[in-house]
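$ fold --in a.seq
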Amino acid sequence: MSDRVLGVACLLLSAFYIFMATQIQTSFITDYLGPKFFPILIASLLAIAAIFPIIKPDPDPDWPGIGRLVEIVFAVAVMVAYTYALPVAGFVVSTAITAGILSWRLGAKPVAAATAGVSISVGIYVVFHLILQLSLARGPWGF
């Protein structure tokens, strides 16, 4: 039963996500796919994945304990804070902090997590901004 509830929740989330993606305003000059394509693609994949547990639920589901659920809620809170910090602190700083925190919660020691956070942030910045010339959020330091 709980698998079906999760499947229905994911299906409703995907419908909401598609609805919100259709609300994205586009200018008359845009690429062929437009900015709505990727969110709708992700929501469609979520909807397809949500159908499976509705049709064939696990007869004996193994749900995580309360500690793991708290960790999941914490990770979601960190990602929500990341979305708010991104336009203020910029991509490099906010991504380094977020990746470091998530690495720490995944089991890395604090120094290794901080190193991973900085490495991930700088690596993504180099690939997407410097090599692919994509625009990333700039912070008060210009990166």
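$ fold --in b.seq
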Amino acid sequence: MKLVTVAGPPSSGKTSVILRAAEGLRASGTHLGVVKFDCLSGDDEKRYQQAGIPVKTGLAGALCPDHFFITNIDACVQWGKKSGLDLLISESAGLCNRCSPHIRKVLAVCVVDNLSGVNTPRKIGPMLKTADVVVVTKGDIVSQAEREVFAFRVKQVNPKAAVLPVNGLTGQGSLLLQRHLETARDVETLQDARLRFSMPSALCSYCLGETRIGPDCQVGNLKMMDLS
């Protein structure tokens, strides 16, 4: 079974892009499924179900969503294999820009949208910087000049990635994304696999549920601002 990680900021159009690419993949005989990682809630599972795509949703709740993802993704791979899938797509939303769910030797896709502003590619960090494919959505809402500047900024951050403009509403450009997804490697297990980027090195009192503010309540791995 092939595995692909798709990540991007909330409302960038990840689900719409995946559904459009899935149309072509399923027409060519690919049996695909989706596992959706979210923080508190999400309705995207219904969209996949309406499209007839097997889907599982994991909500991180009070846990760090990045840690929740990495401790569950291999079990999701095993679910996909047990379900007889040819391709499993992992969709991650709500991950902080410090992190990235992308895994070495697993095709990595980042979805960003033109409306987020031309400086956004520099802010997203490893989620975009370590991706193999960067999908840029909502290009029909901005000018040609804005589209070109945004694509240039993406290339500045990740010169090696394929940058694909895709319209999640009409499906324009999704065929190219489909071709990339078809090149994903087969994965039997993620045991001993490695992330492309490390998780934050944070373990402090607030990670453990502390809500009070003040130096007496702040212990562990802390970083203070230089306000001099």
